[in-house]
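Bumping my old thread because nobody answered last time. Still need a sequence for this structure:
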């Protein structure tokens, strides 16, 4: 009887660990990646027309993309055994997520001096790396 109780307690502890440290953070990371897709669509009118966008819109876009880049890095790095479980959640690997963040930061730094080809390349790279539509 003691072994049954002990086994039940161990299973409960392991399931709670999986839930709190892997499942919930993976869900949050997946939502952050979805937010990237949303923001690429939402702010396209700004980064594609940076010369005519208002300063307030540019600042808002810049903050959003910088926050998303920082969020992706911190979230993926905080998930233990990320690469072991990423396949269950159809997520890109850790390095791929990290590789997408310089382009997000680049979009956040977009000014009228950045050629449209560079902006388009950044957007396409983000979409490809994170497998989003945007």
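Sorry it took so long. Here it is:
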């Amino acid at each position: 009887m003691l072994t049954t109780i002990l086994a039940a307690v161990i299973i409960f502890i392991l399931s709670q660990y999986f839930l709190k440290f892997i499942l919930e953070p993976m869900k949050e990371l997946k939502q952050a990646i979805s937010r990237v897709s949303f923001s690429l669509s939402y702010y396209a009118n700004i980064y594609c027309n940076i010369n005519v966008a208002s300063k307030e819109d540019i600042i808002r876009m810049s903050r959003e993309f910088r926050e998303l880049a920082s969020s992706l890095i911190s979230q993926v790095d905080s998930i233990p055994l990320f690469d072991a479980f990423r396949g269950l959640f159809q997520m890109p690997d850790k390095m791929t997520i990290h590789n997408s963040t310089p382009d997000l930061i680049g979009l956040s730094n977009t000014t009228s001096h950045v050629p449209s080809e560079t902006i388009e390349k950044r957007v396409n790279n983000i979409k490809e790396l994170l497998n989003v539509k945007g």
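The chain has a mean pLDDT of 94. Let me know if any region looks off to you.
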